[in-house]
Amino acid sequence: MRSETSPLLSPTTSHTEDEIVSYVKSRRESIASIDNKIPNEILQQGQRHPPKTLNPISSNNSNSYHFSIHDILSDHDMENGSNEPKTTILKESKILVVNSIPLMITYFLQYSLNVISVISVGKLGSKELAAISLSTMTSNISGIAIIQGISTCLDTLCAQAYGRKDFNNVGIHFIRCNYFIMLLFIPIWIFWNFGVEKILIFFIGENEIDICKLASNYLKVLSYGLPGFILFENGKHFLQSQGIFHISTYILFIAFPFNILLNYILVWSKINIGFLGASLAIVLTNWFMAILLYGYILFYNNQCWPKQNLLNKIYFINWKKMIDLSIPGVLMVEAEWLAFEIITFEAAKFGEIVLASQSIISSLLVWFYQASAALGMVASSRVALFIGSAYKNSAKKSSISAIYTSLIFGIFNFILIFRFRRSLCSIFSNDSDVIEVSSKVLIIGAIYQVNDFLCCTTSGLLRAQGRQKIGAYLYLIGYYLIALPIAYYLAFIQNLQLIGLWCGMIIALAFVSISQLIVIIKSNWDDIIDECVNEAIAEEDQLAN
Questions:
Q1: pTM for the model
Q2: How far is the CA of 511 from the CAs of 209, 248, 458, 475, 478, in angstroms?
Q3: 41, 72, 89: which is the final residue of a domain?
Q4: Where are the alpha helices (DSSP H) in 427-496?
């Protein structure tokens, strides 16, 4: 047992050993008893058994202790029989793979909604296609990335609370995040409706003013669907933090053909709104998905819906932790997306064939990225659940399992892309020159997969630990101090063109993934669990007051 004082537990906020044991034990239920069942059975068991009653704890206790929470619980378990699940790396890998599959499908289908609009509008003409590509890039950078980055805070807050079986706090974090993003929606809406056209004309130029106006009008319509997207994105993370990955997949299976039908009706049928019909189709689809998801949450899985009414003051206090986790989440998403956009702009300087090849490579790698993102999300939820339950050994085993699984998936994708790279490129183009250039560069894209899986998984593990800030720093260093300078040197000075640009990107991703891996391996799990439990107790004190 350690003899040094834990820096995260000061005498003013510490509790007696009996209180710590009482709190955590009241929040823990044996995960081992349900791990051998399929996800639906896990969900049903969670619905059948309501959370245990929390023993009240006073934070005014002046007694201090000199050991970590895990040490205290370990001693208590030795005396009373340990209830930490006897999991293995192989078992954790099986759970990760089984739960990742529906989430991969979810991410593929959700990404495809925008692809459908691009295909639909592309039939109208080159000007419309250019406008929707411009508006998609703008919406991603100025809105979607911000929303998705902030919603990752739920991967830490909700998942850890659910691991403690602190169901009410799962809901409180969820509603808080909804309010927070809805506040940020206001300036995004204002920018999309009143400021984006001037910005686009400034960057694109007066010669393309018609395209800029079309893109601006597209974003004006799209802005009215943003609240629906916010609600769905947060609701998706809310359920995923509870280990429920299949519901969003079912909803996307319904929404996907719904979106195709809307595109046909609004863009091509007798109604024929035309270009803006594609934007309206996304708006209606976003709201449709949000209604379906919240209908499920409220009527079929409301165990984590908060007991307090939606205007309770509890939702408008204690935002610091949420904001601290949200900022690095946004930085990580924005850093990567902006770097890709910069690479695309640089590729345009090498001519039409290189730009077309860049479009093919980017499209393919974004598709394959959905699988790595899904695995990272499942790993994040799983490890955060163990952290919230104060199961240190299980959290460590699950993390190791996630790393091994990501490497296996990455190698599989590498072989798949490398072997079929010419066939994949020919899906997008019949031009032999474009296929030749893109298939050569796609060799680098195949190697990219190993680091991409490792990067997404280690990022997910950092989210589980509540240490997104480390990932944010590494992303900024990797992409802006390493990737872009190297890419410029190789592409323009060494005249490697598109190959040089992608070499810079893969070097950056290797730096980020390996650095995050080292951080995970050297993690102090005692301090991570200490912080998680103490924040939970502080939250309970706020509720009591």
A1: 0.79
A2: 40, 33, 12, 9, 6
A3: 89
A4: 432-465, 468-476, 484-488
Which amino acid appears at position 27 of this protein? Answer: R
**Would you say 405 and 118 are in contact if contact means Cβ atoms under 8 Å apart?**
no
DSSP codes, 323-380: HHHHHHHHHHHHHHHHHHHHHHHHHGGG-HHHHHHHHHHHHHHHHHHHHHHHHHHHHH
Task: Give the C-alpha separation, 510 to 498, whole Å.
Answer: 18
Q: Which residue, chain included where needed, has tokens 């340990």?
A: 82
Same domain, 413 and 342: yes
- pLDDT confidence of residue 199: 87
What total number of domains does the chain contain? 2
Instruction: State the alpha helices, DSSP H only, in 191-316.
Output: 196-204, 209-222, 226-240, 246-263, 275-300
What is the reported pLDDT for 72?
44
Among residues 214, 190, 188, 189, the alpha carbon closest in space to that of 201 is found at 214
CB contact at 8 A, 211 and 131: yes
Here the tokens at position 216 are 């601006």
Smallest Cα–Cα separation from 383: which of 406, 410, 408, 411?
A: 406
User: Is residue 426 domain-shared with residue 483, that is, in the same domain?
Assistant: yes
Please state the separation of Cα 109 from the chain's center in Å.
15
From the first residue on, what is the mean pLDDT of each consecutive set of 10 residues in the chain (545 residues)? Answer: 34 47 51 40 36 36 37 44 72 90 89 80 72 82 92 90 87 96 96 90 78 89 96 94 90 93 86 85 96 94 90 90 91 85 79 79 85 92 88 92 95 94 84 88 91 94 92 92 91 90 91 95 90 75 62
199 and 75: one domain?
no
CA 538 to each of CA 62, 103, 285, 306: distance values in angstroms, whole numbers, following the listed order: 15, 33, 40, 17
The whole domain housing 35 covers 17-89
**Is 541 within a domain?**
no
Separation between Cα atoms, residue 314 and residue 541, nearest integer Å:
11
356 within 8 A of 430, measured Cβ to Cβ: no
How high is the pLDDT of residue 20?
54
| 108 and 66 belong to one structural domain | no
Judge whether 11 lies within some domain: no
Indicate if 444 and 491 belong to the same structural domain: yes
CA angle 85, 91, 93 (to 5 degrees): 125
**84 plus 130 within the same structural domain:** no
Q: Are 400 and 522 part of one and the same domain? A: yes
Q: Which two tokens stand for residue 325?
A: 């986790």
Quick check: is 12 in a domain? no
Centroid of chain to Cα 329:
8
Q: Which residue has the tokens 């800029």?
A: 212
- Which residue type is seen at 168? N
Give the domain-ending residue among 54, 89, 124: 89
225 neighbors 284 (Cβ within 8 angstroms): yes
User: Which residue's entry shows tokens 């206790």?
Assistant: 61
Q: 48 and 160: one domain?
A: no
Confirm if 100 and 374 have CB atoms less than 8 A apart. yes
Q: Is residue 536 part of a domain?
A: no
